[in-house]
Amino acid sequence: MNDTTGAGTAQKVAIITGANGGIGSAIVTAYRGLGYAVVATSRSMPQSEDPQVLAFNDDLVEPGAGARIVAAAMDGFGRIDTVVNSAGVYIGKPFTE
pTM for the whole thing? Predict the structure, then answer.
């Protein structure tokens, strides 16, 4: 766990949902570029070689998923500074519906 005792000195942590591809994956990369540790979550999140990226598999439509993701972030990094919800569900149908 990172040191969270000094005000403003600890590494910031972001939770990014829908992080397995597309915009979510790019958001993970952007936050890492800003120096954040990241909890990257998706229904099928591959493991990361970056020790500052905690890959976490869960489905946000399942009861308790949010609590499990927050617990993983707190266990892994000891804090949460930002949450970005990039998860979405595609429902294919005509635009007018």
Answer: 0.82
37-83 per-position pLDDT tens digit: 999 999 999 999 999 999 999 999 899 999 999 999 999 999 999 99
Return the structure tokens found at 72: 């993983």
List Cβ neighbours of 68 (8 Å cut-off, separation of 6 or more). Answer: 56, 58
Cβ-in-10-Å burial (0-12, 13-18, 19+) of 90 comes to: exposed
Break the chain down into helix, strand, coil percent, rounded to 5: 25, 20, 55
Which amino acid is residue 27, in one-letter code? I
Residues 2 and 37: beta-carbon distance below 8 Å: yes
